[in-house]
Amino acid sequence: MKKTRLLCGNHFSLALLILIICFTPNQFIISGINFISMFEPAEGVIVFQTERHGTNEEIYIMNADGSGQTRLTFNNFRDVCPSISPDGRKIVFSSNRDGDYEIYIMNCDGSNQQRLTTSVGFDLHPDWSPDGSKIAFFSERDGNYEIYVMEANGSNQTRLTFNTWQDQLPDWLPNSSFDSLKILFTSNQTGTYGIYKMNADGTDIQVVYDGPIQELMGRWSPDGNKIVFVKMIDWNSQRDVWLMDSDGSDEVQLTINPAIDEDACWSPDGMKIAFQSDRNGSYQLFTMNPDGSDQTVIPNSHNDYWPSWGIDTTQTGINENQKSEFGFQLYQNYPNPFNPSTKISYQIQELSYVTLKIYNVLGNELATLVEEEKPAGNYEISFNAFDITSGIYFYQLKTESYLETKKMVLMK
User: What's the predicted TM-score (pTM) here?
Assistant: First the structure.
């Protein structure tokens, strides 16, 4: 029997606070080491569709705090269902600009928009594979809605499901190896919509959760242990965001409103959930903690839908244009989250004795990546976490005149 409980929105683990010696709004100190706060503002970028320009829908990108809202598409048609790539550099979406809804791809600045599918019938809700090499979507090109997969350039379009019912809304299992790739999807095999999963080749279809009412829009957490989904109480007035374990057990209701709360997605580090809601009249984008607490509307959100949360490429890795001629700098590791290896880049202003170390949340040193004198310049080093468990870790760059620490997330 499935176990259900209700979270009231105020239960947040305080276990880490016991470890804190000194706490400020932006940082805490453990064992004399400055760390970025676990409670820092949400990071990354959110891509979404909006009707703020009228009935035609366009795609925007913004920082996770709502700042920097930038329009990416400009046309008199509907550009919908955006999904940002794992490396944060591409956006795939659906558009009816050429008639039927087809799948398109573009850079994260809106440039180089290209059509990937040319079918008769709707192609909708594209979603990236964990390595960004493939795209899953659902299509009615063969009658019913079925799940398809293709290469990221649009080639090798392959049908995965062959049913007389409707299979929709695919979602790849993140951070999975090739032999364990799975796709979550919504299907009405029993008459009402439920959450199902299958191998990436379409085999071994299994029910995850199929209750007495409509359950749909399942999204795996970045570590694959949880699924956020929507229960549809009433199509026109009541939909709520729920959470469950990846095996369909231990349901948790996250939103409790006489409103339509839906289209939930995870932040890249799994510490936040974004969703859309019409609780204030028009649809707005909100964020909340995974326990349902701290439900906050994103500033300047109005008539906005379908968030997709990704990493910010301006904070992940560096290119030649980002390297300044002078100054010390520690860059965000890339990829982040990672499994099991990631790259850390840094810049040294002058000849200095440099240390670059890895710490856990207790402040214990786990690895020393650099401990030597280095001349001025730009450097990059790889860190392989094959022998440590999933979690939040910190890396710290230290010289005689510079000290900086950044957070990274390991998800196995």
Answer: 0.73
